[in-house]
Input
Amino acid sequence: MNIHENSRYREVHARSLADPEGFWGEAAREIDWIKPADKVFDASLGLYGRWFAGAQVNTCYNALDRHVERGRGDQLALIHDSPLTGTVTKLTYAQLLQEVTTLAAVMQDFGVVKGDRVILYMPMVPEAMVAMLACARIGAVHSVVFGGFASKELATRIDDAKPKLILSASCGIEPGRIVKYKPLLDDAIALSSAPPQACIILARPQQACDLTPGRDHDWASLREAALAAGKTADCVAVEATDPLYILYTSGTTGKPKGVVRDNGGHLVALKWTMENLYGVKPGEVWWCASDIGWVVGHSYIIYGPLIHGATSIMYEGKPVGTPDAGAFWRVIADYGAVALFTAPTAFRAIRKEDPDGTFFGKYDLSKLRTLFLAGERADPPTVEWAEQMLHVPVIDHWWQTETGWCIAGNPVGLGLLPVKHGSPTVPMPGYDIKVVDEGSHPVPVGTMGSIVIKLPLPPGNLPTLWQQDERCRESYFIDYPGYYKTSDAGYMDEDGYVFVMGRTDDIINVAGHRLSTGGMEEILASHPDVAECAVLGINDSIKGEVPCGFLVLKAGVTRDAATIEKEVVKLVRDKLGPVAAFKLAITVGRLPKTRSGKILRGTIKKIADGEEWAMPATIEDPKALDEISDALKSHG
Ligand code: COA
Ligand code: AMP
Output
């Protein structure tokens, strides 16, 4: 390896693997513990061992109280910028702490105690940050549900998490449309078999809503009453291994996986990343332009920057159209952000609107030091364009909801490694990445295979799925004994750089959002006229991939195919939500299959993407592929 001369990366990574307890034990000194761990890592616990077992801690204390106690009370903790409402809200650490202790006290009045679940179905408003921290403060386990999911998805999560309380708002705001949350919430609760005892609803000025008597309570009134009564809630000590949150993510069926995050490992890992990976110092302004509904939003809008004592920007808007392709540069300039973290799709959207980069020159971007990209593969043309426009390092890094922080990245704080376009660079501390074949044998350098991570996973990674240890074991730990299965395929080069090329399961990545095609197929198959279907991700110049559904209608169906196609598009939007971006359904006479009945998804995808393809030797009926080509042509 010849890549590390000017970076401390090699020694740091090597030490993390040779002496994980020493490495993470040292990193843990940055956290304020109520009681230290009995053991930094206890291999006898959980599915692959547990970090910081026996320790007691409070995540909210580490994110807020300790900074106020040590003189950061007047520093901004949050800058909320919403071009969609034309508002900017700033909260210092002291002000945020007051909001959090007040809401935490309100939640305690509803009987919420340590270990209770609280679902947050919230738009990108400051109150969402307050709510997450208030849960952490009293040891309640939050589960944030992304606003772009429909009622049925919310209902599934309610059934699984069984929340005592749901916190929501009257609406979210998308460009040109108000998303009324209350009807979605009401429908979800009606569908659910585990309705909450109560809901606290934030009435936004853009949309009024009726409160369901006996169940719903007005957020602002509760807050005012609690403030007037001087109610506050102290931090509750939790075990480091207790859950901080559950975040549902797409699995390979319609039933999402409830990824559990613990308190202690999460604190230690995120704190380590802020300085060593992202190169950000306490007191600096950091911007993660994601959504709190995704893991990136949890880790780097809320927890990471606050645990570190930085100022976090929360943005309710889009990269384009709110109002223009200069939106991101305006925010960076207005608040002096030193780093931006977003998804490549945002840059593709900006590039489409502003290919010559005219908006970049209109703003003072002198404070910006680094752009971080994640959520999907950063395609080299997008990275190159961003480098040319911003004149700062553009760092791709590879993540999963399960891991909570990045698996491979380029550690700015340890000394930047050379950037190789198309690679998220090298394994981060604690991650021992291998590329293997189906028999778990390592493949040669440069050869594609399944990417796996040698156990134990570092702190911050999922200990289990919510009340589904067995599903967790089966999903991640059985196929490659001794390893965590990432379900990503790729290769490593001679310098140890990782190249992540795509999923090995049915997950697709649409505008940086993780979706299951299997889940969409379940919805399509529920249409009364559909006999068989296949959904696959096809290339899209902005979103990376978009889903495309192929339908075979039941024998005897005489209704117009175009009408049925519209109906299934609506069905996916209604059941899964607009975030699926499912807009293309195509009726075909039959699906191309192998003689053993497997749908030839790879070949269909190549045809749809306009790539070269070869007739598979095992195909049952070659004409079926011609029919796919013809159907795609007729749908433009
Ligand atoms: N609530 C309700 N609806 C939402 C929503 C939310 N929170 N977020 C998205 N939607 C809707 C959109 O309005 C859109 O609806 P439409 O079909 O009526 O147009 C649909 O879901 C699809 O959204 P999206 O795929 O995001 O497309 P878009 O055209 O609105 O925006 C981008 C495209 C590229 C600008 C946008 O996807 C983006 O900024 N992506 C960054 C992704 C990101 O941050 N990922 C996190 C990982 S780092
Ligand atoms: P999520 O759980 O939503 O974060 O999605 C995780 C999946 O997104 C990974 O398994 C990858 O398939 C993909 N992904 C995320 N970041 C990257 C990246 N930097 N490069 C390639 N794929 C990525």
Observations:
- The pocket of coenzyme A (ligand 1) is lined by residues 147-148, 172, 174, 179, 290-291, 294, 296, 318-320, 342-343, 345-346, 349, 374-375, 510-512, 542-543, 578-579, 581 (CB under 6 Å).
- The chain has 18 helices and 31 strands.
